[in-house]
Design goal:
Two copies of one chain form a homodimer. Chain A has 216 residues and is mainly alpha-helical. Chain A has two domains: 2-72, Winged helix-like DNA-binding domain superfamily/Winged helix DNA-binding domain (Arc Repressor Mutant, subunit A); 77-215, Up-down Bundle (Four Helix Bundle (Hemerythrin (Met), subunit A)). The first copy, chain A, contains ten helices and three strands, in the order αβααββααααααα. Chain A has helices at 2-23, 35-42, 46-59, 77-97, 99-103, 106-121, 124-140, 145-162, 168-183, 187-215, and strands spanning 32-33, 62-65, 69-72. A three-stranded antiparallel β-sheet of chain A has the order 1-3-2. In chain A, a hairpin with a 3-residue loop joins strand 2 (62-65) and strand 3. In chain A, helix 1 (2-23) packs across helix 3 (46-59), helix 4 (77-97) packs across helix 8 and helix 6 runs antiparallel to helix 9. The longest helix of chain A has 29 residues, at 187-215. Chain A is elongated and about 55 Å long. Chain A starts with a helix and ends with a helix. Chains A and B meet through helix 3, helix 4 and helix 8 of A and helix 3, helix 4 and helix 8 of B.
């Protein structure tokens, strides 16, 4: 039992490491992940590496090709369209149903200050943080773990090409419009701004996808 | 490589077998799944059993308790509320956005006949089939694999207690109202009937949950 526990901890560490390298772009989209090579590089047995890759495939970040091996998910235009439509479904549902919870949350005012700070400082890291906080605030307002888990996996997929994003100052302005509408208790306009923003995220993500293919 | 392939096929078979036994109620909610015992019963090594249980835990049908073991997911009232809210989110989104695709699908007329046949024959098996066909038709109209996969996992959770369902003739009438509204091109009323139906499914599922706890 003790041995199994250690294995399971190693698996979690390998999972976290590979996930970070995939999401940062250090490991490219579509790149093959060789179990033997990875286990040699990490100085561990192949089993936890294989387990970690199976867990990443359950997240949709890794693709298993039977008889061939593991590959980082290749984002296609169709896949991005699916993910964006899923985001629209989840975020618009939560913003509509839990609008008052979001509006009355103490986090929304803090976020408002941060988003304004991004305008003054053009600080990319601060933007990335506030980006995640805003969208997660909308979804987490549901307190529905099933919906939140689903959404976090969608977020990770967009993360695959998020480091290539160049329009963050425009995105930030769009966030400001959403937050201001929420604070002014204008539900319909908040939803309208949110949907428009996600459509822009889609266009940018599809553009990033092309860039990522060219540089590979 | 050949050895790994065989292992992976065994894993899939074990996965399918356990899933069927869990969903049919043959293995109870909350029951412990012992890797060693299962591998002895099945006459195979523990690895594919463990892999299958990890895959079932990624589906949410099995719960991993670190240092302890694997258990069939225990449905709680809170979890059922989460699943039902997720179903409302997905089905209402798809019915709204893809209403015309559903209305013009050749499957809807076939389904209409089947639902009417259930009224005449009171055939439970036919109801179960048409139940799945109707809800999947609504969701599959999106052609969005990410949404469909998410929904199928929700469906499996409700399946955990579906065999206890006693109000199938009422459910069938509700299906009829939804289908008739779709065929009459009455979008708003179709959505209204769908939402009311899913609320009834929730009440029934919560009741089934209590029954399943008593009989265990």
């Amino acid at each position: 039992m003790r041995k199994k526990l250690e294995i399971s901890l190693v698996r979690t560490k390998v999972y976290d490491l590979l996930k970070e390298e995939i999401l940062s772009g250090e490991i490219h989209l579509g790149q093959r992940l060789n179990v033997r090579k990875l286990s040699e590089e990490l100085g561990i047995s192949p089993t936890p590496v294989r387990d970690a890759l199976l867990a990443l495939s359950a997240d949709g970040l890794v693709r298993v090709v039977p008889r061939v091996g593991f590959f980082v998910t290749e984002l296609t235009e169709n896949y991005i369209n699916e993910i964006i439509e899923s985001r629209i479904m989840v975020e618009s549902f939560c913003l509509k149903k839990y609008f008052d919870e979001i509006r009355n949350s103490p986090d929304i005012l803090k976020l408002y200050d941060e988003v304004k700070k991004v305008i003054d400082t053009e600080n990319r890291k601060l933007f990335d943080e506030s980006d995640e906080v805003l969208h997660m605030l909308i979804v987490k307002s549901s307190s529905n773990k099933t919906i939140i888990d689903f959404y976090e996996k969608l977020w990770d997929k967009i993360d695959l090409v998020r480091h290539l994003n160049k329009r963050y100052l425009d995105s930030n302005k769009e966030h400001l419009s959403i937050i201001e509408s929420i604070l002014k208790n204008e539900k319909e306009s908040a939803i309208k701004f949110l949907l428009r923003h996600i459509e822009n995220v889609k266009d940018e993500t599809l553009k990033n996808l092309k860039t990522s293919k060219v540089t590979k």
